[in-house]
Design goal:
Elements lengths: L5 E5 L7 H9 L15 H7 L14 H14 L7 H17 L10 H11 L12 E4 L7 H8 L4 E6 L2 H7 L2 H4 L2 H4 L11 H24 L3 E5 H6 L1 H12 L5 H4 L1
Parallel strand pairs: 1-2, 1-3, 3-4
Helix pairs in contact: 2-3, 3-6, 4-5, 7-10
Length: 255
C-alpha cells in the first residue's frame, strides 16, 4: 500500500467491526493513538460522530464533513499543523460533545471531549515517524462514504462489516440506532412496533445504503466482510482482508 493510503472500517453498530480492526493492527497497520476498548478511533468520534450535527450533512459530500475527514487524515499522518479553520472546527466539535455527548445517551459528555481534543492536537508527537500503512475503525464510518470518496478519491479503501441482522437486532440498544436511523430515512419510534424489529429495519436500511454507495463510489476499493464468514473460514478471510489492505505479513504472523 502507498504511504498515506488509508483503509477504513465501518458497519452498523454491533456488527463486530473490532475483529478486522484488531487483525489489521496486529498486521502492523497504524489505527490511531487514541482508541477505546472496542478499537474505535476516538479522533473520528470527536470530529464526526455528532448526533446533533451529522444527520443534516449526510446527503452528498458536505464540505464540513470533508473538512473533518481532512483533519483526521492529517492527524493520523502526523502532520496536523492546525489552521484557524481547523481549530474552529475542533473547538465546535469539542464543545458540542462536551455538552451533549457523541450518542443519544450522552456518552462522552464533559471531560471526555477535552481529552480527545488534547490527543488530537498533539497527534504530531504520537504518529509513527516513518512510512506506514494506516487506517481507522469506527462503526459510523459507513455514514460518510460519500465524503470519504470526495476527499480521498481513489486512495480510500473501505471495509464494511456485516453481521447477521437478527443477532444485531437482538442485542441492539436505542442509543446505537437513533439518530442514525432517522438520518438515513428510518425512524425507530415512528410506529408502535417492538424495538428489536425497528433495529432490524435500521440494520437493513443501513447495510443496503452502505453496500450501494460502496459499490457505486469505490468499486474494487470496497470490501464486504461477513462476520460469520470470518469466524467459519478465518484463514481465508484474513488473507482476503490483508490483501485488500495491501499488507503482507510473515507466515508465522498469519498463523
Amino acid at each position: 500500500m502507498e504511504q498515506w493510503t488509508p483503509v477504513a472500517i465501518g458497519g452498523a453498530g454491533g456488527s463486530g467491526t473490532r475483529v478486522p480492526a484488531r487483525i489489521l493492527r496486529e498486521a502492523g497497520v497504524y489505527m490511531g493513538a487514541d482508541l477505546n476498548r472496542s478499537e474505535d478511533n476516538l479522533w473520528f468520534t470527536l470530529l464526526l460522530k455528532r448526533p446533533r450535527w451529522l444527520p443534516e450533512r449526510l446527503d452528498g459530500a458536505h464540505p464540513e464533513v470533508v473538512q473533518g475527514i481532512s483533519i483526521l487524515e492529517r492527524a493520523m499522518a502526523g502532520r496536523l499543523a492546525p489552521t484557524p479553520a481547523d481549530l474552529s472546527f475542533v473547538s465546535r466539535a469539542t464543545a458540542e460533545i462536551y455538552r451533549h455527548g457523541h450518542d443519544v445517551s450522552g456518552g462522552g459528555r464533559g471531560r471526555w471531549a477535552l481529552g480527545r481534543a488534547a490527543t488530537l492536537l498533539a497527534s504530531r508527537r504520537r504518529a509513527p515517524r516513518r512510512p506506514f500503512c494506516w487506517g481507522w475503525k469506527e462503526p459510523s464510518t459507513h455514514l460518510v462514504l460519500e465524503a470519504l470518496h470526495a476527499h480521498f478519491g481513489w486512495r480510500i479503501r473501505y471495509v464494511h462489516v456485516m453481521r447477521h441482522g437478527l443477532d444485531v437486532a437482538a442485542g441492539a440498544r436505542p442509543g446505537e440506532v437513533d439518530p442514525w436511523a432517522r438520518a438515513i430515512g428510518e425512524d425507530p419510534g415512528a410506529e408502535p412496533i417492538p424495538f428489536p424489529l425497528a433495529a432490524l429495519r435500521y440494520w437493513t436500511a443501513a447495510n443496503e445504503r452502505a453496500i450501494r454507495l460502496g459499490r457505486e463510489l469505490l468499486g474494487d476499493r470496497f470490501l464486504l466482510v461477513r462476520l460469520e464468514d470470518l469466524c467459519a473460514s478465518p484463514r481465508e478471510s484474513v488473507e482476503e482482508l490483508l490483501a485488500f489492505a495491501g499488507v503482507e505479513v510473515p507466515a508465522a504472523t498469519l498463523d
